[in-house]
Amino acid sequence: MIQADPILQVQGLTKKFQSKLAVDSLTFSLPRGSIVGLLGGNGAGKTTTLSMLLGLLEPTSGKIQLFGNNFVRNRHSVLHRMNFCSPYVDLPQRLTVMENLRVFARLYGVRDSAKTIARLVDDFRLLELKDQPIRRLSSGQKTRVSLAKALINSPDFLLLDEPTASLSPDVSKWIRQQLADYRERTGATILFASHDMREVELLCDHVMMMCQGQLIEQGSPKELMETHHRSSLEEVFLALNEQGGVG
Amino acid sequence: MNSSTLGRISALLLRYFFLLRSSWPRVLEIAYWPTVQMIIWGFTSLHFSHSSPELTAGGILISAVLIWDSLFRSHISYTLSFLEEMWSRNLANLFVSPLRSWELILSLSIVSMIRTLIGMVPAALLAIPFFGISVFDLGLPLLGFFLNLVFTGWAISQAVTGILLRYGLGAESLTWMLPFLLAPFSCIYYPLETLPGWMQGIAQYLSTTYVFEGMRALIVRGEWLPELMWKAFLFNAVYFILGLGVFCLAFRSARRRGLLLQSGE
Question: Is A48 within 8 Å of B258 when comparing Cβ atoms?
């Protein structure tokens, strides 16, 4: 499923907030169809990086080439091909699940939206919740709706910021499966920021570890474990932490 | 305007329709305040009609109240719709979608116009049986007065929503304050000459002053002065550009500072 041609090429991406360097000269690319985990401690720069890749934050310097377009200068040409889900962002609370999906389907210009919504409602087990306002849902249910919204336009590039944060292990596992199925079905590329090392190990083909705004280590989970002679990504992370390599 | 743009604008209109449908107090509130204002000023007008008939000739007080309220309602309707996105932490979802800033502004303006009409028309209609005063007797100029004040409201809203983006919900009180800052200078209930010289100096740069001077000339002297209307439109064009400028600068600044993802206090 993973193809050699990158959908995203990032070069020297830097973000400085006054005197604080939040992201420092990131350079990487994402192959089409890959699931890539972005790991790092608190304040490592994961959310800042995702924000720049979403166009929510203007980089101080650097280039983002997405689907062959200069994303920093012309993000509107590709925004319809991407989507995201983050715990920092909610859906309109008073609108029902169905109303939210209808609004976002229209916002993304989804053709045959009724069919798409019906499939997402089915995929994310939202049938019984569809007429409930978002504010009445549990955090696990809200995450399922947010993910359904994130897939409403069948994005080629999906950015997820800790999508399973504060969810029970069974729901997290179920969501991981949904994401893996989606990638398998569509060949989409997924960038996944998380604190959960086990989750990243299970889901991602490639991992990038960040520390103090810099990319300090990357490779497949297996490569990283072998390189650092550890049996899990968590141990790799802790070892780097002990060496002062992870923030 | 292509079909994608229309689709995105209709998505936001649908979003605000769903919001109103989900909350009857929101619907009630739209018509409530203009009607209450009209009733209070209607009785005040009735009272003064015996002691000082020149103050209330031709229903000038009620007309002034209703026309001024179109500015306040258009501004509040626009800004509240934007605030709904901030309160529900939904702005980032909008800004990562293909929605463009100008489409958001246009959608908010359409919603504002609809909400303003829902608020103002019942109040204006109720003034007829309640107090025998019909603001519709002003004829076509009423449309000019109304549109001018709605445009002023939108210009203020653009600046306020820009400030909200940049400074967060901590600046929410500006939403309520700013239109009232204009009120004393706008000569709503009194002629321009009433103001001291320095206030007149400021008032002559306000579109609202020309609207109310024009309204008074029409109601009191039966004189239609189109030049006042054009002056108001000209000033509004300038305000609109300034408001848009503030919004664009604030949006850029918010994007540089990373405020679009977490738009709270």
Answer: yes
pLDDT, tens only, B186-213: 999 999 999 999 999 999 999 999 999 9
Tokens of B127: 């003034």
Q: H or E element: which one contains B243?
A: helix B226-257
What is the rounded CA–CA span in Å between residue B116 and residue B74?
A: 5
CA-nearest of A127, A156, A186, A153 to A6 is A156
Which 3 state secondary structure label does DSSP give A7? strand
Please give the distance of CA A11 from its chain centroid, rounded to a whole number: 19
- Given a cut of 80, whether residue A165 has pLDDT beyond it is no
State the sign of the Cα–Cα–Cα–Cα dihedral B57, B61, B66, B72: positive
Contact A36, A194 (CB under 8 A): no
Place of tokens 């209703």: B66
Read off the pLDDT of residues A168-181 as tens digits, 9 standing for 90 and up: 888 888 889 999 99
| Residues 92-131, chain A, touching B (beta carbon < 8 A) | 92-96, 99, 102-104, 106-109
Q: What is the DSSP string of A207-227?
A: EEEEETTEEEEEE-HHHHHHH
Element (H, E) at B106: helix B101-131
**Residue pair A232/A201 in contact by the 8 Å Cβ criterion:** yes
What are the chain A neighbours of B14 within 8 Å (beta carbons)? 102-103, 106
Q: Which CATH number describes the domain made up of A6-89+155-242?
A: 3.40.50.300
Q: Give the amino acid at B208.
A: T
Q: Strand A214-219 vs strand A206-211: parallel, antiparallel, or unpaired? A: antiparallel
User: How long is chain B?
Assistant: 265
**Domain locations in chain A?**
6-89+155-242
